[in-house]
Amino acid sequence: MRYQITGKQIDVGAALQTHVETELSEVVAKYAERPTDAQVTFSKSGHEHVCEAIVHLSTGLTAQASAHANEIYAAFDDCCEKMEKQLRRYKRRLKDHHRERSQPVEVSGANSYILAASDEDHEQEPETLQPIIVAEMETKIPSLSVGEAVMQMELAGVPVLVFRNEGHSGVNVVYRRDDGNIGWIDPSNAS
Question: Of 47, 78, 118, 132, which is the most buried if we count CB atoms within 10 A?
Answer without folding.
Answer: 78
